[in-house]
C-alpha cells in the first residue's frame, strides 16, 4: 500500500514540475526585443506595401519596387499581381500592376524590372515633386547642373530630353520628355533600357 501511495505522490509531483516548466515557457515575455527574431519560428516576413499614385518615382524604383527586382519579388513586396504582356521577346516586355496606378508601365527583361514609365496621364511625381505638366524651369530648378539636355528624337527643337544621371557608374538614370514648355512623360531605370526611344518596339 505504501508503495502505491509513494508512486502516486511521485506522479503528481512530476506532473507539477513538467507543467510548471511548460507554463513558464509559454508565458515568457519576449516583448523587450532583446532576442534574435530571425531565430524565432514565429518571425514574420515584411508586410507588403501596395504601390499608389502617392508613391514617388526614384532613380532606382517606385514605392516598394526597386529596379532589378524579379516579377515574383515585386508581387511579394507590393501584394499586387503583375500582368506581363506576351508581346515582343523575353528580353523586353511591358507589364502593369493589376489594380495599380493609372498610366504606370513596367519594363521587364527576362522578368527582371529594368525600367519604370510614367505616362502622360499619370499623377505620380518624382521624389523632388516633378510630375507631368510641370514646366521645364521647375525640372531645371530641382536638378540644376546634374541635368543634361538633348534634342527630342521626334520633336526636334519643339521638345527635348532632360536626362538626370548623377552617378553614371551606378548605371541608373531618369529621362524627362518635354515639349517646348513642360514635362510630357518621364521614366527611370537602367541606362540602356531607359534610353530606348520607343519602349520595346
Please explain how this structure is put together.
The protein has 201 residues and is of the alpha+beta class. Helices cover 23% and strands 30% of the residues. It has four helices and twelve strands. The chain has helices spanning 2-27, 71-78, 136-143, 191-194, and strands at residues 56-58, 61-62, 65-66, 82-84, 93-97, 104-109, 112-118, 125-126, 147-152, 156-164, 172-178, 183-190. The strands form two sheets. Strands 4-5-6-7-12-11-10-9 form an eight-stranded antiparallel β-sheet. The radius of gyration is 28 Å and the shape is globular. The model is unreliable at 1-44 (pLDDT under 50).
Contiguous low-pLDDT stretches (5 residues minimum) are: 1-44
Compressed to H and E, one letter per element, the order equals HEEEHEEEEEHEEEEH
Biggest sheet, open or closed, and with what strands and sense? 8 strands, antiparallel
Q: Regarding quaternary structure, how should these chains be classified?
A: single chain
Radius of gyration over all CA atoms, rounded: 28 Å
Overall pLDDT metric: 83
How many helical stretches?
4
According to DSSP, the number of beta strands is 12
Helix content: 10-25%
User: How far apart are the termini?
Assistant: 94 Å
Strand order, sheet with most strands: 4-5-6-7-12-11-10-9
* Shape descriptor: globular
* Helix-strand category: alpha+beta
SS strand fraction:
25-35%
Amino acid at each position: 500500500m505504501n508503495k502505491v501511495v509513494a508512486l502516486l505522490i511521485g506522479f503528481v509531483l512530476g506532473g507539477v514540475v513538467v507543467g510548471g516548466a511548460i507554463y513558464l515557457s509559454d508565458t515568457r515575455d519576449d516583448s523587450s526585443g532583446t532576442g534574435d527574431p530571425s531565430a524565432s519560428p514565429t518571425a514574420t516576413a515584411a508586410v507588403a506595401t501596395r504601390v499608389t499614385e502617392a508613391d514617388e518615382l526614384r532613380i532606382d524604383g517606385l514605392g516598394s519596387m526597386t529596379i532589378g527586382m524579379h516579377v515574383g519579388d515585386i508581387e511579394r513586396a507590393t501584394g499586387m499581381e503583375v500582368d506581363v504582356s506576351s508581346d515582343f521577346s523575353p528580353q523586353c516586355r511591358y507589364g502593369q500592376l493589376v489594380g495599380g496606378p493609372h498610366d504606370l508601365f513596367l519594363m521587364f527583361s527576362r522578368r527582371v524590372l529594368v525600367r519604370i514609365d510614367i505616362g502622360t496621364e499619370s499623377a505620380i511625381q518624382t521624389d523632388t515633386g516633378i510630375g507631368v505638366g510641370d514646366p521645364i524651369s521647375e525640372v531645371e530648378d530641382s536638378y540644376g547642373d546634374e541635368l543634361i539636355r538633348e534634342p527630342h528624337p521626334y520633336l526636334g527643337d519643339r521638345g527635348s530630353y532632360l536626362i538626370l544621371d548623377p552617378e553614371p557608374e551606378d548605371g541608373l538614370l531618369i529621362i524627362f520628355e518635354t515639349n517646348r514648355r513642360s514635362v510630357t512623360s518621364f521614366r527611370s531605370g537602367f541606362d540602356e533600357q531607359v534610353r530606348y526611344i520607343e519602349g520595346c518596339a
